Amino acid sequence: MLKSVDFRAFIFVSGLFIASVIAGFLPLIFASFIAFGAVTVMSRKLVSSGSQSSRSHTIAITILAVVVVAILTGIGLGTSKLLHESNNLRPLAKEITNILDSANSWAPDWLSELLPEQDELLSHTSNWIKENSAKISHAGIATLKTVGYTLLGLIIGAMVAVNSAIKSNNRGPHAMLVFAQVRRLYEAFWSVVGAQIKISALNTALTAMYLLIYLPVVGLHLPLAKTLVVVTFIAGLLPVVGNLISNTAIVLLSLTHGFLVAMSSLAFLVVIHKLEYFINARFVGERINAKPFEILIVLIVAEHLIGVPGVVAGPIFYAWLKVEWARADLALPAYTGPALIETHTEQPEDTARNTESANTESATNASGKNASGSPAALAKE
User: Fold this and answer.
1) Percent of the chain whose predicted confidence (pLDDT) is above 70
2) For the chain: N or C, fewer Cβ within 10 A?
3) What is the DSSP letter of 210?
4) Structural domain boundaries of the chain?
5) Which residue in 74, 80, 316 sits closest to 188, CA to CA?
6) Residue 11: count of CB within 10 angstroms of its CB
């Protein structure tokens, strides 16, 4: 059985992790894991510790860490800029108007009556923006905080990687247990993220072939197609629900070319989703020994308890929990005792009678032994 101190270390670190997710530090944690992993892997491959002095080794790893942080920051800012430029409100509002105009041409009369007119839609949109201006401003501030936390996470992860590479571990036993749990959380993160990156890359490649190759060949140009490809990859990093986000956007924008094109897009995406279901079961399931329905349950519970951050952190925490559970099972000794459910139990009267007989027989044997082995008996003989 696992030692109680090891279990307490798991409870302590898991409590810190959940509290950090609730407090909004998830971007910082994930960014630090990414930077730490990138610097660690690249330093092992590019920096040789045996052929350099300690000082030059430290300088080389530090420079490498700075380069990695700069590259990761550039990738993040570039992706954010691409999404910002491609998803401003004017093109999106225009496409919504085109969707409504297209729907009026093929939708039945009862459905057309339910759809809002263009002027009515614009009026409702303008009023909503005025009424929720404070929330929109708060969302902008929250976005800036997320960017700041991400940058801090990249720096912290790189600094931890540099410190681990140039200094030996001189931690106490309790600190070692805590850092061991953090390490397992880090490994669970890469287990889930690594599998999801492969799945999302395959899904994005197939979606790009459909949006950027197949549809233009047949004479259909879907609006914001390149943006949809980027959204497909980013949303695909979320297990299960990521596909729902990207698929909904693709089907809605396909309505600009009519109902049949939207149904064609939906059929194509359903095929991809079924393919991804088996791939997810293989990639993610093999890495964390979990079925897709387990991941879905975790997502539902985590979203209900924490919200959107729970959807992101839930699978990683579950993978970590599965690892700790497996370690606990291996540490337990094999159960060799009686069956947990007895098929036959003695009645109380039988038990008392058997106990009394056993006590009488034991007393008789003991008295005989004492009589034959006593000094008086030996003298008589």
Assistant:
1) 57
2) C
3) I
4) 4-133+141-331
5) 316
6) 11
